[in-house]
Amino acid sequence: MKCFDQVLLNSGFTMPMISLGTFKLKGDDVFQIIDAALNYGYRSFDTAQVYKNEESIGNALKILLPKYNLNRKDIFLITKLGPKNHGNVRCRVFYLQSLRNLQTDYLDLFLIHWPAVQGCKPSDEINIKLRNESWQEMEKLVIEGKINSVGVSNYTMRHLEELYKYCKIEPSVLQIEYHPHLVQSKLLQFCQKNNLHLQAYSSLGSQGNNLLLSNNLVRQIALKHAVTNAQVLLKWAAQQNIGVIPKSTNLEHLAENLKIFHFQLTEKDIDDLNSLDKSCHYCWNPECVI
C-alpha cells in the first residue's frame, strides 16, 4: 500500500494528504516508526525545530530510503521555524541547520511554527516585525532553491490577512488545530478562497483526555462503517480536503491511519460531526498574539 492521495499546492508542488507526525518522537522510536511508516506507504514526514528530533529523522531516512528503493525526491519533508528563531538572521541560520540535521539540501515545506517570538509577550508589537522578517527571509530561500513551498502554523485569519498584505510569495499551507471539537469553518472558507491548503494537527483531540475519541457519535459512525474511531476523525478532515498529521508509536495504529482512503463518510456523517463543535482548543490558542 502506498500513500498516493495528493493535494496540489499553489506553489505547483504536490503534497501527500496524510503525513506522519513526529511530535515527541525520540531516540530509538524514531528509526523504528519511520521504518514501519515507509513500509506501510507513508511518504510525508512532519517535524519542527522545537521537536529536537530533526537529526534523528535525517539519520533514519539516510539509512532507510535505500532499503525501500526510494530517493529524496520520493518523500515530502516538512519542518517549522522555532518561535525563538524569528527574524531574518536567525531564520536563515536555523533553517540551514535544519537542512544539515535532516541531511538534505532542500525542504519540501517550511512553516513558521508560531506567530509570536519566544520570550516576548503576545501583545508586544515586536512579534509583527520579526515574523515579517522571517517570512521575507523564507521567500529568499525559496528563490535560492532551498525551499519548495512555504507556509505558516497557528496563524489566525487576522495573522493571515496581515501576511497577505506584504508577502511576495503566498503561503501554500496553513497548519492548525482542527477537529470536530474545534471546527474553524470561517478559517477553512478563507483558506479555500485563497487556495491555501489547510493541514490539521491534533485531529484526535487532546493527548490528555479522550473526550473526542470516546464520543458516542464518533463511536456510532465508526461502527456503521466498520472502522475505528480514530479513522472516522481522520477521514472527517481528509474528506473535506484537509490534510492530516497523525502520529503514533503503535505500529497497528500507524497502519490503520492510512486506511482512511478505503471508505467514505456520508454527508450526514460529516454534518453530524461538525455539530460537535465546542470551539475548544486542546493545544495552543493563537488568538492572544497581536
TrEMBL record:
Keyword DNA-binding: no
Keyword Oxidoreductase on entry: yes
CDD domains: AKR_DrGR-like
List of catalytic residues: 51
GO molecular-function terms, A-Z: oxidoreductase activity, acting on the CH-OH group of donors, NAD or NADP as acceptor
Residues involved in substrate binding: 113
Keywords: NADP, Oxidoreductase
Domain annotation NADP-dependent oxidoreductase: ranges: 18-277
One Pfam family recorded for the sequence: Aldo_ket_red
Matching Gene3D superfamilies: NADP-dependent oxidoreductase domain (3.20.20.100)
Listed InterPro entries: AKR (IPR020471), Aldo/ket_reductase_CS (IPR018170), NAD(P)_OxRdtase_dom_sf (IPR036812), NADP_OxRdtase_dom (IPR023210)
Site-annotated residues for Lowers pKa of active site Tyr: 80
Lineage: superkingdom: Eukaryota
Family listed: Belongs to the aldo/keto reductase family.
Name assigned to this protein: NADP-dependent oxidoreductase domain-containing protein
Species assigned in the record: Helobdella robusta
Gene: 20213490
